[in-house]
Design goal:
CATH architecture of the largest domain: 3-Layer(aba) Sandwich
Strand content: 5-15%
Largest sheet: 5 strands, parallel
Helix content: 55-70%
Radius of gyration: 31 Å
Strand order of the largest sheet: 2-3-1-4-5
Number of domains: 2
Shape: globular
Length: 257
């Protein structure tokens, strides 16, 4: 005897199938927004990496050619359409900078620790503005920075870690270009000896402390090369660094643990 399902049972079975299809459709529809949310998170992370300008520092002994090369570099970058500014430390236009200028030109006397802290204060005066400019996409070409302050003060006999301490937390350069020259070669260049620190034996000590401050951001260039050759080497390094910063390299703090 063949049992025929009752009408009520058939209706129940059809309802179950419709329910199953509806649930499956609902499940499939749920997968798409979840997938979108993961993609959105990835996009958000990408957007957090903001394009910015690069912080480029030129360092070296007195008369190594920093100021000349800084000027050439700024003119070149301007010429090819980059937003760029030329900075220099000490900044002698501020109140602190004027005190430093008087000291450097031998018009005043200060304790070695006091003048070191003034140099550091001069950099802190500009820290916020420096960060604002970088975030606006402006590349900063800086003639001397914290490394000079530490190297010169350490050469006077101050403890190197004590010298670094006041500058901890300043913006870390993306690239440090060190123009390498001996004090003897530097002394042959025009204007040498006009300021307090331009003495050969003292400059030798400064060079030794510069070596202790080198880190992976440093690039060493032979400053005895022809001016045009030095300029080309600097350009290549700087353009690579600017490109990296445009891709969203984070701004770091100097000597942060």
């Amino acid at each position: 005897m063949i049992h025929v399902p009752s009408l009520s049972l058939c209706k129940s079975l059809n309802f179950w199938k419709l329910g199953e299809q509806h649930s499956l459709k609902k499940y499939c529809n749920l997968r798409f927004p979840i997938k979108c949310s993961f993609r959105q998170v990835h996009m958000d992370n990408t957007q957090n990496s903001e394009s910015r300008g690069a912080l480029i520092v030129l360092e070296g002994l007195d008369r190594c050619g920093k100021t000349s090369q800084s000027t050439r570099l700024v003119n070149y970058l301007n010429g090819i359409g980059h937003s760029v500014e030329s900075w220099r430390f000490p900044d002698r236009n501020t109140g602190v900078g004027q005190m430093i200028s008087s000291y450097l030109s031998n018009k005043s006397q200060l304790d070695d620790r006091a003048i070191h802290l003034l140099f550091s204060a001069n950099r802190w005066e500009k820290r916020s503005l420096m960060e604002d400019e970088l975030k606006r996409g402006t590349t900063l070409i800086v003639d001397r920075y914290s490394y000079s302050g530490v190297a010169f003060s350490s050469a006077k006999g101050l403890d190197i870690e004590w010298c670094k301490a006041p500058d901890i937390g300043l913006l870390a350069p993306d690239l440090v270009i060190y123009l390498d020259i001996s004090p003897e070669e530097a002394a042959k260049r025009g204007g040498y000896g006009g300021e307090r620190y331009e003495q050969r034996e003292f400059q030798k000590k400064v060079a030794l402390f510069y070596q202790k401050l080198q880190d992976p951001t440093w690039k060493i260039i032979d400053a005895k090369l022809e001016v045009e050759d030095v300029e080309k080497l600097i350009r290549d390094m700087v353009l690579d660094c600017i490109l990296t910063c445009k891709k969203g390299k984070p701004i770091l703090k100097l000597w942060a643990s």
